[in-house]
């Protein structure tokens, strides 16, 4: 044991060996398999697209802070420090959407996302700073709580305690450190990576002509060179596409068709897209895979995405803020209703029902849409009543 480790153990600290399988995710550079890191996994277009879709969507969701009274009623608190960070930025270098996007992407790829809580001199929350998980070493203290040692890459190391960070975890095996879903389905990811590697090698090293010219007998070198130059000068390039080829001397043209092996490789790569989408709970149309798309499932993809993919992550974020940052009686809400803004008919039908049933009034609907309330009308002046109300008044 090194001298530093012995001193730390006397102070009640414990350093875990990164080679321990249950703590393997703590070591920088280790993703989910020995041969493919989380960073390398983003070379798979589906992994990158799913990660970006989830992270950017949650980063764009309006975040609101509420105070709940003893009777359970909620009041929005726009002056709360968390609400201020949502408006002006989580820290001087990153906006709120950027910070949340990095936080979520880290949790998706490594199973863990970490935000350092920054406070002013009076202890008030002043900022949130994203810490790359690959630059963090986790130690378990004698109390059972975790300590996070962050190396900034310039030789400086700072220790954060659990109360000083927001630790977003994917599902864990030990209740402390999250485990990436990529690691739980490592064979699936490896298969997709192998298919991509095979396709890249084929394109880089393979020779696949579009067709073959069969010649009876044996051609002399000068005849072969003359034929090659004739074909290149007459038929190669976009400008010569579709030109008729004239062959003489008994020569015949045969188009080169895709082999069953190559067709199987294409199907494997297509199936890998669906498999990786399953890992992240992302409907394929969200990442522009329309191979099995219909009008009906395309229209429902956004709703499915918000309900089964974004909502669980939003609830995790709300719970982590309630645990680490917000005092008792306050709560953070990520408003997923913003996803209905892409469907005006559904949105306004919902507003209409809310007004007719007395759930909302017109000014509350205007507020939801981001508009100011109607100005109070001068005495003696009345706005024209809606057509249906005007008709009812004469009955």
From TrEMBL:
Write out the ranges of the annotated region (Disordered). 371-395
Taxonomy of origin reads: Bacteria, Pseudomonadati, Pseudomonadota, Alphaproteobacteria, Sphingomonadales
Query: InterPro entries given for it?
Result: Phage/GTA_portal, Portal_HK97
**What is the name of this protein?**
HK97 family phage portal protein
Entries under Pfam families matching the protein: Phage_portal
């Amino acid at each position: 044991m090194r001298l530093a480790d012995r001193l730390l153990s006397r102070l009640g600290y414990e350093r875990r060996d990164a080679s321990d399988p249950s703590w393997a995710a703590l070591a920088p550079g280790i993703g989910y398999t020995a041969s493919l890191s989380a960073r390398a996994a983003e070379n798979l277009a589906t992994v990158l697209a799913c990660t970006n879709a989830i992270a950017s969507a949650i980063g764009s969701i309006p975040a609101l802070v509420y105070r709940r009274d003893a009777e359970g009623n909620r009041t929005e608190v726009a002056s709360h420090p968390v609400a201020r960070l949502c408006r002006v930025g989580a820290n001087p270098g990153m906006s709120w959407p950027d910070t949340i996007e990095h936080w979520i992407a880290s949790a998706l790829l490594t199973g863990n996302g970490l935000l350092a809580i920054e406070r002013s001199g009076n202890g008030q929350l002043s900022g949130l700073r994203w810490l790359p998980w690959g630059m963090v070493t986790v130690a378990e203290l004698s109390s059972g709580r975790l300590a996070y040692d962050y190396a900034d890459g310039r030789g400086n190391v700072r220790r954060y305690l659990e109360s000083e960070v927001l630790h977003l975890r994917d599902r864990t095996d030990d209740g402390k450190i999250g485990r990436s879903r990529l690691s739980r389905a490592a064979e699936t990811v490896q298969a997709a990576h192998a298919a991509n590697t095979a396709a890249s090698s084929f394109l880089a090293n393979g020779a696949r002509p579009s067709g073959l010219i069969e010649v009876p007998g044996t051609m002399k070198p000068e005849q072969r060179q003359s034929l090659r130059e004739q074909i290149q000068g007459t038929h190669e390039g976009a400008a010569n596409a579709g030109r008729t080829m004239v062959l003489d001397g008994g020569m015949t043209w045969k188009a080169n068709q895709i082999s069953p092996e190559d067709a199987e490789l294409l199907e494997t790569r297509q199936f890998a897209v669906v498999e990786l989408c399953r890992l992240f709970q992302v409907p394929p149309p969200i990442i522009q895979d329309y191979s099995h798309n219909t009008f009906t499932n395309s229209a429902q993809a956004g709703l499915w995405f918000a309900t089964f993919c974004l909502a669980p992550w939003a609830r995790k974020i709300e719970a982590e803020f309630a645990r680490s940052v917000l005092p008792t009686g306050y709560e953070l809400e990520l408003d997923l209703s913003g996803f209905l803004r892409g469907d005006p008919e559904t949105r306004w039908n919902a507003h209409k029902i809310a007004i007719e049933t007395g759930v909302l009034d017109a000014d509350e609907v205007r507020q939801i849409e981001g508009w100011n309330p109607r100005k109070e009308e001068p005495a003696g002046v009345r706005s024209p009543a809606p057509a249906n109300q005007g008709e009812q008044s004469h009955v």
